[in-house]
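Sequence in, structure out.
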Amino acid sequence: MGKLSRRHDLDFVRVAAFMLLIVYHVSLMYNSREYLFKAPDPSSIFDLIYLWTHPWRMTLLFFVSGTVTGILLPRQAPQVLRNERTRQLLVPFLLGVIFLVPPQVYVWLNTRLGVEIGLMDVFWHYVTLTPVSLPGGEQTLLVGMQHLWYLAYLWFYTALLAFAVSLRPLLLAQVGDRLVTLLSGKRLLFVPTFVFILLRLMLRPAFPPSLNILTDWYSHSAYMLAFFLGAVMASRDDFWRAIVDIRKLALLLAVLCAAILAIVFPVLPSDATEMWRLLVGRVATGAFQWSAVVAILGHARVWCALESRIVIYLNRAILTYYVLHQTVMLLIAYALDQMGWMSAASFLPITVATLAVCALLYELQRRLRASWRVIFQVNPA
C-alpha cells in the first residue's frame, strides 16, 4: 500500500475550526447565554460570536471527520480503523471525564451555585457519585461530559460507519453513485440546506440539544448527516469540484444568514422570544449551517491546498488543545475573578493564555511520550 496523500486543505479547516471553538468557549463567559462561569459584565457584543459561529462550527467538524474517515476506509480494514479511533478518541475522552471535568464543576459550584467547596472534595463527590448539597437545600449529582461530548459522538459515528462498511464494503461508493445526480451543481448547496432547515423546524423543538448521547436526537440527525455526507464525498472529485464551483454562492448565502441573525436577535433568543423571531431564526440558522460549511470547504480547497509545516504540527496537536482547553480556560478565569480582574477586557488575555497553556502541555506530553518510547524501546538481539 502506497503512502496516503494528505488533504492539506482539510488539515487547515480542522485546525481553524478547533481554534475557533476555543475562542467560542471563552466568549460564552461574556455573552448572555447560561454557562459554567460568567463574567461580571456580560455584553451582547459577544452574542455575535455565538450567532455567527455556533450554527455551523460543529457541523463543519463532523463533516471533516467524516471525510477523513471516508478517505481511510477503502485503505484500511474497518475494524482496524475502529480500533485506531477508539485509542484516539475514547481513551482521551475517559481520561478527560475523570480528570478534566471535576475542575470545571468546581468552578461552576463555587461561582454559579454559591457552594463553597474545595477541588479535592469535588473530585471525591464526582468519583463516588455522591450528591452535593446546594445553598437552597437541594442536592445535585456531579455527572456530565461537558465539552468532551464531541469525542464520544464522533467515536459512535465512526464505529457505526465502520460496522456498516464491514457488512457492505462498497457502501460508500454505492451511496455516492446514487447521490451524484441529486447533489450535482448547485443542488449540493440547496438540497442539504433544505434538509438542515427541516431538521431545525421539526426535530429541534421536540428534541433540543441535551448532550445525552442516548436521547440527543436532533444533534445526532444533524451531525450524523454531516459525518456521513463527508464520508460519501471523501474521494469523489465530482463533489469537490461542485463545492469549489459554488463556493461564492455559498458564501453569499452564509453572509446573508449572518446578517439576518444579527438583525433578528440583538441578543440571544430566550424562552420569551416571539414566535416569528424563532421561526425566522431557525430558517436562517438551518441555511447558515450548511452554506457556511460549503463556503469554507470550497475556499480552503482553492487557497489552502499547499503543505504547511505549521498546519501539519497544529493538526497533530489540536485534539490535545481541544481536550484541555475548557478546563484551562475556566481555571484561568476563576483565578482572575478571585483577584478582581475578570472583565470584558480579559477576553483576549484569557484566550491567548489558554492557547499558550495548551501548547505547553502538548509539548510536555509529546516529549514525555518520546522519552517513554526511548526508555522502553526493545532492541533487536
